[in-house]
Amino acid sequence: MQRQFTQKYLNKKLIAYFVAGAFLCFAMLLGISIGTVSVPILSIVQIIGSKVFPFISVNQIDQMHTNIVMNIRLPRVILAGLVGAALAIAGAAFQGLLRNPLADPYTLGVSSGASVGAVLTLFFQISIPFVGSFTLPLLSILFSFLTIFVVLTFAQKIERSMRVETIILTGIIFSSFLGALISLMIALTGDELRQIINWLLGSVSMRGWAYIKIILPFFILGSFILMLNGRELNAMSFGEERAHHLGVNVQRRKMIILTAGSILTGAAVAVSGTIGFVGLVIPHLSRLLWGPDHKHLLPLSILTGSAFLILADLVSRTIIAPTELPIGVITALIGAPVFAMILLQRKRAERSGS
Amino acid sequence: MLNVQQVCGGYTGESILRNISFEVGKGELFGILGPNGSGKTTLLKMISGILPIQEGSISVNGQLLSKFTPKQLAKMVAVLPQHSSQAFSYTVKETVSLGRYAHLDGWFQGWSKEDERIVQQVMVQTGVADFSHRDIQQLSGGERQRVYLAQALAQEPEILLLDEPTNHLDLSYQKELLDLLKKWTNERSLTVISIFHDLNLAGLYCDQLLLLNEGAINKRGTPNEVLKEERIKEVYQTEIKKHPHPKVPVPQMVLLPEWQNELEKKDPIINPNMLSLSKDHIVLQSSVPLRTMSSGVVGAGMGWYETFINRHVDKNYDCSDHRKEMAEYIRSHGFDPNESVGMMTAVRLEDVSYRLYTEKDFSVFVVVTAGVGNAVDASKSDSHSFEMVPGTINTWVFINGNITEEAFIQGIMTATEAKVKSLQDQMVIDRMTGTLATGTSTDSILIAATQSGKSLEFAGTITPLGKLISKGVYECTTEAIGKYVKRIQE
Questions:
Q1: What is the pTM assigned to this prediction?
Q2: Which residues span the membrane (chain B) (predicted)?
Q3: Which residues of A touch B131 (CB under 8 A)?
Q4: Any chain B CB within 8 A of the CB of A246?
Q5: How does pLDDT run across A232-288, given as a tens digit for each residue?
Q6: Residue A62: domain span
Q7: Pick from B84, B87, B152: which is nearest to A100 by CB?
Q8: Number of domains in chain A
Q9: Nearest by Cα to B373 from B296, B309, B298, B437
Q10: Residue A245 and residue B88: Cβ atoms within 8 Å?
Q11: Looking at this predicted complex, what is its ipTM?
């Protein structure tokens, strides 16, 4: 009987990955297909197929379609996917670590730090030699690192044991402070105002392959580290003392997880600006659907997070075309009601005792 | 197993614990006691490696605690916390499986059959296997506590630390949990170190106790050495009384509430007006419970009782289940059997003799019903066959005073001696042997005291209390037998 149960359990997990993967494929195809020029899904498959397997000839495909897919839509969809995945997995990790389902990368002040780095770059027109146009993302990541470092040092100063409550409080304090700094810089800005505001609202448009190259190594590094810490995150979500009793090296693991989280957040903010709600809603949704086990929650959050942001980006550029809405508006508009609905349904299910 | 040497320390800055040294042997159930703020939890956190030690050393199996890696420590020492927070709805099995964390080496090592076997085993042992797929957030406090116990046991520790394990459990689970722990210490040499709030539970189950007071060791030893009335009073700063457990030779502590002092001032007097006589029974109804020692049919032994019933039954009364029948009789007359002492007699109740004897600041009220139809000489009782028939000399002695336990026993001796003398003076003869009788075959006695007013330590025959008892019992018995004999002769 036990074996049957285990079998069923495994099947359930497989189904979860399949559903999440299918959702991502669906979102990608839709994201590439729809726009001012509609590209048939079959063509997309052919175009991408010919790039992956160059020996297949694709003479009958429209050159314009190939251009649109390869130079505009595909990089945009991939970038949106990567940003969504990075924010979602970072959110899932932070929520597990802080034992708070309502925590996300913003709670720790990480994304505010990254924003300050970016705004500073735009404000002072900084350009680091040899890096050139990559100055903005690099400084964002640097600042998210600095912020998490300052927040943690400050939390440690308040309390040696660095309880999660202290970290959250410190994060919120720094977040507000950094937000005020950004507002101050915007107020002092003259000509660059529009550029900064645009960046702040968040977007994945017209970034191209270059930005994917920026975020990809950080994304792989951060996600890899976090997924190695799935078991530790499970233990941590029962409280730090409990994790310690179970044999987790709490101080070290906490630093590793926070660092990985800030790499992901910093990189995501650098390439797309501040996009809210992904890091909050996606992990929560995944947990409600497939359980809180971080070994599965983290990869599933990556799949659903990227699919969600691709769809959000699609809606943001088509809903009042040709004008584009900031993607953050869409994530909040879709995310908040979905979130509320799930919460309500879950409460109802609990009450009926199932 | 565990060796704690001159440990000092506590939270940042201040030192809560001072100079703590003790050892715990393998397979011991070791209890840590102490009032709130005495440093119990701090000590436990130090042993579990959460709080750093400022001075001294703690070693497990001869190795310093600080030399263990967290994983190594988790394989040796598991903790069942007092409170556990669960932010997410893990299933019971997922929760228990986390206990195997320390045993999984490497990042990618999978779940082995051995891990699965141990998880299943501990879930069965703690009785959580039946709901292994349910969310822990949906469980009751007691069920959840058992899930965390299973998680701790999945670590396969040699030492199990518990912080007030019975805190959220109802009575039956408290017993179940402690019985289980005791069994494991005996059968698998698991060492259990637990904080207890309940001194009596600690006394019942622990092999060794450590009593902490203001961060220092007050006493360490067996329950009998540690749970001394004076020591507990001093450490906990409260009124308690030591009392033996009815079945097991361990000390138990009972609280003395404030209202008990109030009661003493009221000073109830048991007097003849409280007695009601009828053909069927004699009842004395007290306004307050009396401390009673008796050999009644109902309410025998030591206890606190309010109603005292001496019931007339026929000579041919069937005694097969007399206790139950008597309890029903008491209930049917509007009294509570749990609050009553009930006796039986075949004697006509109109032969009763009672009188109040008063001294300067205490008094004794004696009630005797007597019949000597089955008089026996105790020195020759071998020649009588055993036969349960309703008692014939029932002696009640009510004392308006506060008497000790030894005075209860001395009171029974004194009353008995007075009864024997009365029988002899009236030349009551054992019909079987033809010698002077010392009583009848089924006599009953009751000593009840209000436990308020004057303190009376002794009740031997020449003590002030003893004098009143012997005089009263002698006179009343003599009078009652006189009435009986007179009625028989008529």
A1: 0.76
A2: none
A3: none
A4: yes
A5: 999 998 888 889 999 999 888 988 998 898 889 888 888 888 887 888 888 988 888
A6: 2-353
A7: B87
A8: 1
A9: B437
A10: no
A11: 0.80
